[in-house]
Sequence to fold (1295 residues):
Amino acid sequence: MSFPVTGIVPREETQSNSFMSKNPLYDGRGIIIGVLDTGIDPGAAGLQVTTEGKPKLIDIIDCSGSGDVDMSKKVIFPSPVDADADSSSPPSSTLVGLTGRNILLPTTVTNPTNEYRLGIKAAFELWPENLVSRVKKERAKATKTFQSAQELAAQQKLEQFHLTHKPKEGKYESEIQEQLTNINDEIEMLKLAYKDYNDVGPIYDCVVYHDGSCWQALVDTSETGDLTNCTPITDYHVNRQFKCSDPQSMMNYSVNIFDEGSILSINVDAGAHGSHVAGICAGYHPDREDLNGVAPGAQVISLKIGDSRLGSMESGPALTRAMIEAKRLGCDVINMSYGEACCVANQGRFIDLAKELVEKYNIIFVASAGNNGPALSTVGCPGGTTNALISVGAFVSPNMMVTEYSMRELSNPEGCNYTWSSVGPAEDGGNGVDLVAPGGAICSIPNWCLSKNQLMNGTSMSGPNCAGCVALLCSGLKQKNISYTATRVKSALYNSAKNLDSLSCMVQGYGLVQVSDCFDFLCNESEHASADVRFDVTVNRRLKPSGIYLRSAEEVGQKQTFSVSVKPNLRESDDVSFEAQTERVEFEIRVNLSVKAGNTKIGAAQHNTVANCDFVSCPDHCLLMSAGRGFTIEVDPTALGAGVHFARLFGHDSQNAERGFIFDLPICIIIPCTRVPQNRIDFGQMNFAPSEYKRFFLNVPMGATFMDVTLKDERQPGGEDNTERLLCLHTIQLLPHTPYRDAEKKCFTNVKAGQTVVTSIAVQGGVVAELCIGRYWSTIGLTELSFDVEFRGVEIVRCGGGVLETQGSNKILLSSRIRNETVEPKGTLDKWQTPVRPASFKIVPCGSRDTLSSGKKVYRLELTYSFKQEEEGDVTIIAKGLQGFLYESVFEHQFFFLYNKNKKRLGLGDCWPEKVKCEKGDISCLFCVMHEDLGMLEKMQSMVVYVERDLKSAISLGMYMTHGDCMGGGKKFGKYNLALGSSCAVFVGVDSVLKGLPKGVESGDKLLGKLSIEDKGSSFSGDGLKPGGYEIVLVAPPAEKKAEVKKKPLVKEAKDERTNWEKMEEETKVARLDKLDKLIGVDKESLEKFGGVFEKLKEEYGEEELKLLCIQLKMLDGRKREDRGDRLGEIVDLCDKIVGMIDQGVLAAWFGVKHDTTDGEEVKEDKEMKERRGMVIDCLGRKIVAVMEQKGERGEENFEAALKELKKWDKVAGNDKMAVVELKILEKKGLWGSMLQLVKRLGNGESTKGGVQELGEGELLKIGGECFGRLRWENLVVNAGSVKIMAEPAAFALF
Fold:
């Protein structure tokens, strides 16, 4: 039996197979397809060459920026010899990467300037999530092997200790006990190291240099630093070079280098999606024709818009850059299998750029309609909501059912749409779906998937199938020397599409793509110059909708007249040449107008188009000139039955009827099941054929807040057919300026024979709701369902907009307009928002990648916010007015990063922010907004963002029956039977909330939560209450001022005998020394500033001023100073000098007795003594550290002497301020396990602030790594080094 290969990559359905059989050279050659997607693997099967042997992938561009590497660090290598240095010292022969690895460059490197740029990139930040998951699992196996061996060795070490050492009288000597404690610490810390093991993945050193002709890059994917056998690579388009990261990942990468070497873009895909899409468009397998894409001769450009940092979600700058690159690289066709729900059609920054590509540069833009059906008006943006684009729905043919899905029998012998394929019309009445094409394929995927091909389905697959068909058409037209425009091709596609009787107009648009028929149409159209004229058809109502779409009961209850405007666009409006103006003068078309209608009734399986339409009337003719014309049409829906009624107004050139329609206007009318709202609707029992779904439109009564939909499978349990049936229930209401996703409910349910399912769905009273119920497209066998809808809910008549007052009671009025309801109001607050204004802002011009096709520069507003996290927890950054908008946004971009104090990136977000786990401490938020208009950005420079946190425990609000009960804490509301037509009041008290606000809540902060009204327990089925409840917010009031309690002074103040001048002199001195202390830094400029001020103060206060000397010591002992190692002797001497100036005998005598804490003189002296004792401890601690780092004969002697002195004043162990000293002591004794225990105790090092040496998170990770090395836990050494790199990056990440 032969294998049915025609369904692998479907081509027969669209005539592309037969077209290429007749025209083998019209296979897409000469056409460039831009694929806006997750990126394409250049090593994927079928994506190497075209049918002519040309490179398949012309270029690979990461438009998202997720692969960007900051290469701003410059080094000269070999470094020049310092003229003042010892002439015997050779120049540096080692290039050190930002990971700290020594880099060995290839011997073939040519670099005339010897300047290299260095960068660093973590592989797990580059790779898609499922690849990271696979690699982590594989690496975990190796880690487990190490762990088992190390744990065994540690236990053996403990056993050996007990064999060697025996306690005396149950105790060990102190040194032996230290060893035992250390071994136990090793065992404990080894377990903890693996419990907390954080595999941050491979971290690559990156090197960029200019070889005299172009920029070159080296990426150390081996993590060894040895690049001697590595071949440098340059921008992909130059030599089309790509490399495999490593055998484990099998991730291929290429590079591009931008902005004079300052940015290295590492191109990897963010998912398998893009390679699959490219394979459908244009894959070519020389030895396997059955696997070929639709246009195997076409070339492809990968324009990655899926941001790896966002889990492959598209982002604003990626979309804008993709538009720029598509124009720059000369794309003929674009495919975009991405999209989101939007709140308004044909508007937004990206939409403007996409329209420019199509209308000005004649690039044919194909986009998926979306996978959000089967309800009406679920098309995504940009495909389904942008008139300039071709929106494609997903069709599944019988061939596909057999080959791709291995179905035992066909669910529909004629083919059908996928259940989830989005359906029109758009919210403004536009088509929504223009065409359908096969929505599945077994096709190319990236090598890192460890497979050549894979089945994927979706409108993501129907889009590239259609784009491949367009490439065939353009290829043929070019080779026949027939000029064409995007407008001409779109018109031909729509006029030649095959209408599928089994699909409605809203599902299929104009029909299934037919390549041969379309090509014939285009060849005939070549005679008509006006075929390139684009007609903009709008209805003269608010926002200029693209169609007539009537859904509300009021709209369909009366006859209406609509004014329609038709505007021909001959050329770009700014073209005022004599030729263009003459063409406008001469333009005239005599248009015949007609209306054709399709009618969808309840249960109707067929959606036939008929010539006569009795609910729309229009003029017969219209003489159209270049300025456009308007005319009126009348729509009378009053006699229409329940269901969907669809019609199109067509305009035909009366003198060239064979051209088909030259413009059209969709008209969609929704008639609810009952024109008068009913509280309950019983639809009875209905039969559902395989892949069939039925639409019902519900006139939702005012006062309803939710509805219960009850479905019952009427098959008898235990009968012949007891298999489960996969059903889809989808409801949607269209609300003004609201994406459909915010007012929909969709669920897929497997139902058994006799099973009843009740689903509660939130609704908006007075707005028509669609209820779509159907069989999943692949489910076979008949299904009998009975179902009904019952509206329920209690309406909140007044609630102050959901904002609770902090004083008094908050009265809420409830009304039951549907039925008797038992109410039991409950309210909780579970979120907390803090408003934050930017601490700083700047506006900078973006790089070359962001210069628009028009030549305009794009600017970036960078806002910096700071806030304190009282404890570790999740944070969400809310930027109201920006977030929630992508394609319809007026800005090119919005993006933010969250960082800790060490510049470690904690998380990021865009227009749909998610929770970011933040550690305790100071957090910075860097927010970026981009636009070409500086004025727009300047308006945003003081934008407030909200830091949202989850409350540890939800706060319950008190609900009371009366105002008096609320104010006095009386009887709670409880349950109440609210009769139909009646109302009641509920009083919400917040006094108890204000007394227990979370730590950190300040005036102006918001506490947010939900309010539920209905009694859940009183319902026998469904949720019993409105899903999601009602949003409420409490604004925190100003903090209550606590009355000051005057206490009698416990200390008798000492009399100050100083003159005012002496007091002022002392205050000035203290202020000067404090200022000097703050000047301490590690860079050259800071040191110079400090030195200048220090010398002046030393001259004024003398060399014996203790505080001044302590500040000098702190400066010399700066841990990050590069020359600290050369100053150890100077540090030791200064420590001895300070300690020698303090009479320790006097100190000992003072602290050896108790003092009167009420005597002012003694209290003052005690303060001075404590300060001097602190100086002694600090100096001795610093001396110990410096002595241990010194290399000298008397190092041991000096160490013991300093430690002995220190222990007179401080026990050292357990004092985090002396942690560095304790670590040095443990290091000297070789107690590596105990060192690790101490490192664990110190955490992120916050407790070491103000001590002998502040230890940051990175420093502690380094110490931990060194301990692992001493214990020969080499894999943990490597991991600790990687974690340290990620914990303390040198700079903030690039936007």
User: Anything to note?
Assistant: DSSP finds 28 helices and 57 strands in the chain. The chain has a mean pLDDT of 90. The two ends are 56 Å apart (CA to CA).
